[in-house]
Write a structure and sequence with these properties.
alpha+beta; 6-stranded antiparallel sheet; single chain; 37% strand
Length: 167
């Protein structure tokens, strides 16, 4: 059993709550790539983070993100936990409709939410939804950034006001 669909997000929420309970009002916590912000950066601005290029061999970021106080971002996709068999890359995320790894053009999905657990769960679910993900996110009011891969090119789709947080 793999609890990565929400476990990291839940753990991140608990860590952030504990740090706040200890009296810290300005921090950014990273737990395996899932991030939660409270307060502001020491310079007085919102926290800023990067969304990595999801292609396994790529280097660098594809987007900068302003992470307001109290918000979390989680990303699911091919970069960290995919694997190759022959010439084909397989996702670690299962498509429940086919009982097989997601096999489409989705490279990653990043979700903004107040709860890291909610962001983590939705990022996984929207990745599993593949091309149907943006419609699912819109129906549920989810702020998400979808990165689709077509050959070597990436295309982006945003939902739920995610684009207002891009820098």
């Amino acid at each position: 059993m793999d609890l990565c669909g929400i476990a990291k997000g839940h753990a991140l929420d608990l860590v952030a709550r504990r740090v706040a309970d200890l009296g810290h009002g300005d921090f950014l916590v990273d737990l395996g790539g899932e991030l939660k912000a409270l307060g502001q950066h020491p310079s007085g601005r919102d926290w800023q983070v990067a969304i990595e290029d999801p292609r396994p061999d790529a280097i660098g970021a594809v987007a900068g993100l302003r992470l307001p106080s109290g918000m979390a971002v989680a990303t699911s996709g091919l970069r960290a936990q995919s694997y190759m068999i022959g010439e084909r890359r397989y996702s670690h995320i299962m498509d429940p409709r086919h009982a097989a790894p997601v096999d489409g053009t989705i490279a990653s999905v990043s979700v903004l939410a107040e709860s890291a657990m909610l962001a983590d769960g939705w990022a996984t679910a929207l990745t599993a939804a593949d091309a149907d993900g943006p419609a699912l996110a819109r129906r549920n009011g989810i702020a998400a950034l979808f990165l689709f891969q077509d050959g070597v090119q990436l295309s982006t789709v945003t939902t739920g006001g995610f684009d207002r947080h891009l820098i």
